[in-house]
Design brief:
- Specifically methylates the adenine in position 2030 of 23S rRNA.
- The chain has 259 residues and is an alpha/beta fold.
- The chain has one domain: Rossmann fold (3-Layer(aba) Sandwich).
- It contains eleven helices and nine strands.
- It has a seven-stranded mixed β-sheet, with helices on both faces. It has a two-stranded antiparallel ribbon with strand order 2-3.
- Helix 1 runs antiparallel to helix 11 and helix 5 crosses helix 6.
- It starts with 12 loop residues before the first helix and ends with a helix.
Amino acid sequence: MLSYQHAYHAGNLADLHKHAMLATALDYLTRKDKPLSYLETHAGRGLYRLDGAEARKTGEAQAGILRATAQGWLPDDHPLHRALACVRRAHGPLAYPGSPLIAAHFLRPGDTAHLAELHPAEYQALSQVAGFATLHRSDGFAMAQAVCPPTPRRGLLLIDPSYEVKADYQTVPRQIGLLARKWNVGIVALWYPILTDNRHEPMLRALMQAHPDALRSEVGFAPARPGHAMIGSGMWVLNPPFGLAAEAARLTRLFRDRA
């Protein structure tokens, strides 16, 4: 299915959770003078406008990153705050980076990146801002299976499906199992929505049973509008880098107290 476009949801509370975790992991990885690989299965367009028609229609960014920055949810030295400031300097105060441009902020010469996006319009937009990466207009799981283990072997893979297709919940554990066998040193980060029907739970049980040492981070928040089914955000991370568990705990407290 190619109907999902993240522009309607960019900068919402789920993005804040996901991107704070991602930026923290990449910040730690790039402190060491060793090259890394960054892979992403569902990259989106990479750069969003919070004053665009899509964002204004839902108002999710207003309740998410715009509120968070106004209220100081992210300290000035937080990796996501730094990446966001860099993107805004280049693209204006109401620009918001998707995960590809968050990664671009941290990646260095000698690092490699592979980004997959199947939606034709999203792929075209991504190609305008992601010159740092090898782009794949293909199924993201197929790309990951083809590229892994990447060169360099040290690195991170972000899996961020839209979950419009319910089969994604069954596909993800199988795909991660294959990737973990191919790339046992890789950090595999999975984002998932927490919905009112808890449909993510069988997927998470399967993942935790197969990988009991993985990090599971979940935050809750009010629905974006009446009848909206998403009430939280989850990040599951295989081989989490140092410091990520502490950031997950900080976000849990933050969302509990403020969101």
